[in-house]
Hints:
Layout: H1 3-9, H2 13-19, H3 46-57, H4 73-86, E1 90-94, H5 97-108, E2 114-118, H6 123-131, E3 139-143, H7 147-153, E4 158-164, H8 176-186, E5 189-193, H9 198-201, E6 211-215, E7 229-233, H10 239-248, H11 254-264, H12 267-287, E8 291-295, H13 305-311, E9 318-323, H14 327-336, E10 341-342, E11 352-355, H15 356-359, H16 366-371, E12 378-382, H17 388-400
Helix pairs in contact: 2-4, 4-11, 5-10, 7-8, 12-17, 14-17
Amino acid sequence: MTSKTRNLRKRGPATLAVHGLERRPKAHHAVSTPICQTSNYSFERMAEVVEFMTAKAQGRIIREQEYGRYFNPTQLEAERKLAAIEGAERAILFSSGMSAVILTLMAYMKKDGHIIFTSDCYRQTRDFATNFLGKFGIQNTLVPPTAEAIEAAIRPNTNIIFTESPTNPYLRVLDLPAIVKVAKRHGILTMIDATLATPYNIRPLECGVDMVIHSATKYLGGHNDLLAGVTLGGHQSLEDLNKLERMFGATPGPLSCFLLERGLKTFPLRMEHHNRAGLQVAQALEKHPRIEKVWYPGLKSHPDYAVAKKQMRGCGSVITFLVKGGGRQTHKFIDSLELFQITPSLGGSESLVTQMATMSFFDYPLEFRQSLGMVDNLVRVALGLEDPEDLIGDMYQALDRV
């Protein structure tokens, strides 16, 4: 590590977002990272091939470019910047957030093992645990998002604790140091999907978590125009994952990496807006007579307010709430919104809204949906970069029509 790299790690989030651990000069002396749109990388002579393969067999790297399924130069620059922002030794990019989640689990799960997941986790993560892990002989348990519940579920064959913070959609914030303490006492690997928190609002690795996962599609990319995922952690601890990703070919394309790296330059500025707008809109919703309940960790009414205040810089811009009435009234509210687009996802420039029971859990039986808390009047909004006063005005006029 050069002195320049060491100094960079000490700098603020905005500086890291712009400069990261990028290499200079870049190709063709470009200021922005070029898009290297190719699937193959050639060698000049066979002697160069022999030298490369010999070094590779010895665990040495003499050139990073080999084949597009393994990685590309644009991807490597984005990974360096993500590692700098997260405070990690290494970042591995994937083609989507779910490919990051599934391949990270597959790389470290053990035969006849057991994985603990916290409830209220992302629906697709839960579906993978419920419907697919058993095919590999892996047991799993879903528990409430507390250190006590996690420790009570530990078995002799438990080797992974997988959680989210904040969770989706009820935005539960976990006491990460307490969970890490439990995991280390039992020698268990900890993984966290921190997509909703982002590296700006929480740094799980500093709490002792082993691996952090983000859907880079969301806040990190920030513009609703790319798909990517990333896993971050120690250099050696991610080596097995690196080999598995190269085998599966789950690497993102050069254009997605370019868009991600470009989006990261404004990441801290956007997060300041998201944090400020999220709290302002959540407070306004909590005051409206047509709102039954609001979940937002920055509100004192949230069950994890104390943990969030202690552990997080800010709480982002995802807000979940109940509209008074049933499904018909909720549909009327959503249809009356003018600035929100009806679609899942979050963290982009545009504000989005979804009725969880219909859009994300429609194929579940009614009783099971309700057991998960996915009632017909549950709404999740993901605020964009619009003026929060305009978003509040839009939601108020829509509520007045219910």
